[in-house]
Amino acid sequence: MYFARKLKSVPYVARTLEGGECERLVVNLRQLDCTTYVENVIALYLCIKNEKTTFRDFCNYLRNIRYENGIVTYPTRLHYFSYWIEQNTLTGIVREIVPQDSSVTEDSEYDIYYMSSNPEKYPALRKDTSLIDDISEMEKYFDGKTYRYIPKAKLKNPESLQAYIKDGDIIAIVTNKKGLDISHIGFAAWHKGNLHLLNASSIHKKVVEEPMSLYKYMMRHPSQTGIRIIRVL
């Protein structure tokens, strides 16, 4: 939470990882989108936690958070946040918190295909169409798999979720947009019994701690259906 709040007011800029001649590790704390915000905060935290505080250490953590096996190529970047969760769980950086109370969660089946179906929206895929097959393989990895999430209606009574969600947990917002899994991420922040979102906001054009509760925020976005909780270890 210390680093998450230190970056408040940093401008929101989308697609800061795109547009280069080739894939490389982008380090940019002057402009953040929702994913790079979370990744940079975690990398800073890991530096302090493990007492490795050189710039090279920071870059090593960021690379291993952002890329499968720390290998910097476009296909190994963890484009879909569900894949990001799986890979960062395998490396021991995070784990997903799934409430055991079945009345709090619902099951859903993955249906991921957005990138391979819309390559024109991604500069790297427009430039090199052979990469589309690699992205498609990442998407097919989720075929037939399911996940559990907390429907946003459950956020109306946040006291029932305090046992599961802590300050600093990553909030991954589930979407019903075709071909996507997660549409937005940020950090959980409790205020007087209400759950709020600390995030790099395209609405506010900067990193903010949302003044309204997460429930009210999500009710304004019909495509947002619920949340998944990811805890940094």
TrEMBL record:
Gene3D superfamilies reported in the protein's UniProt record: putative xylanase like domain (2.30.260.10), Putative xylanase like domain (1.10.3670.10)
A Pfam family this chain is assigned to: AmiA-like
InterPro entries per record: AmiA-like (IPR010846), Papain-like_cys_pep_sf (IPR038765)
Name of the protein in its database record: DUF1460 domain-containing protein
